[in-house]
Amino acid sequence: MKAFVLERYGKMRALRLADVPQPQLREDEVLVEVHAASVNQLDSKIRGGEFKRILPYRLPLILGHDVAGVVVKVGARVQQFQPGDEVYARADDFRIGSFAEFIPVREASLALKPKGLTMEEAASIPLVGLTAWQALVDTAQLKKGQKVFIQAGSGGVGTFAIQLAKHLGATVATTTSQANSALVKHLGADVVIDYQTQDFEAVLRDYDVVLNSQDGKTLEKSLRVLRSGGKLISISGPPDPEFGREIAAPGFVKLVLWLLSFGIRRKAQGRGVDYSFLFMRANGSQLQEITHLLETGAIRPVIDKVFPFDATNEAMAYVEAGRARGKVVVKLK
Range of 250's domain? Predict the structure, then answer.
């Protein structure tokens, strides 16, 4: 099969289009013929080697976390899916590889593709949808009437998280450029801050939840817009000791994570705020919940651009430029 392969870590390093063997199927997996795959910042971070300690992949590696396609084969223990099913998923860590013609996906991580969505639309959802769900529903337990600040509202996670937060009944604030202000308002944002001309710290007060996706300076400022007892959830780091326990990290890695997050954890504690790092996990049952929201129209996909498969490197570069409105997708079929 054809696949885009990472041969060595390096920022901006081009993936090589190669003919590789079709992956071996495990008993609890289905083999999906890839029709579309979306590109995420996580792909770039893995390519650049930023997660080598946390996710020690063996190279060469096929990148790509999101997939939509058709089941062509099922493992011996698979019961919920059969050949011909249209499905979508965020592939599990260490089984990623959707920048290819075929990918095996664990049954527990898979869901039927939402009715009414194209393959490209479906492929745009899993990673950002599960990230928003695990942040706002699982970790924050966001409730009607609460206030949430979602950074980078016009990005992939932001466009989904705004819609999910509004569905949950929250008041939503976000940051974006003036050019994308109308988009985030249309998605449901109540307070829109132009990050180029405004300081969110001067505008927001007593928020219940912050979903941080930016740098360390923004993370620290976010503490000051939260009420006592509020929750600061970061998807951009630093990882905390709890994350080290979740991934059963070696002792020296746990120590590194403790040191990396010590400063922000201490400052959060001093303000009576809960800090946590979220590295989302593949989850088919949560994806089924998201499917319902997509099929009822409560949430809609936001796609900036669709690239052909042979332009996967160009799609990666477009995402890395940081100006995409919503998601960027690679189309195979």
Answer: 128-277
Average of per-residue pLDDT across 60-88? 98
Lookup result for tokens 């529903």: 137
How many CB atoms sit inside 10 A of residue 246's CB?
13
Q: pLDDT tens-digit profile of 184-197?
A: 999 999 999 999 99
Do the domain assignments include residue 146? Answer: yes
Q: Do residue 169 and residue 61 come from a single domain? A: no
315 inside domain: yes
Q: Which two tokens stand for residue 193?
A: 């801050």
- Taking the CA atoms of 34, 38, 44 and 50 in sequence, report the sign of the dihedral they define: negative
| Amino acid, res. 294 | L
Helix (H, G, I), strand (E, B) or coil at 297: coil
- The per-residue pLDDT for range 279-322, each reduced to its tens digit, is 999 999 999 999 999 999 999 999 999 999 999 999 999 999 98
E strands of 159-273, at which residues?
A: 171-176, 191-194, 207-212, 226-234
Q: What is the DSSP code (8-state) at residue 107?
A: G
How far apart (Å, rounded) are the C-alpha atoms in residues 83 and 115? 18
- Number of domains, the chain: 2
Q: Is residue 181 part of a domain?
A: yes
Q: pTM, whole model, 2 decimals?
A: 0.97
Instruction: Say which CATH number the domain at 53 has.
Output: 3.90.180.10
* Same structural domain, 243 and 134: yes
Q: Which helix (H) or strand (E) holds 218?
A: helix 216-223
Give domain status of residue 188, yes or no: yes
Q: What number is the average pLDDT over the span 255-259? A: 86
How far is residue 31's CA from residue 311's CA, in Å, rounded to a whole number?
24
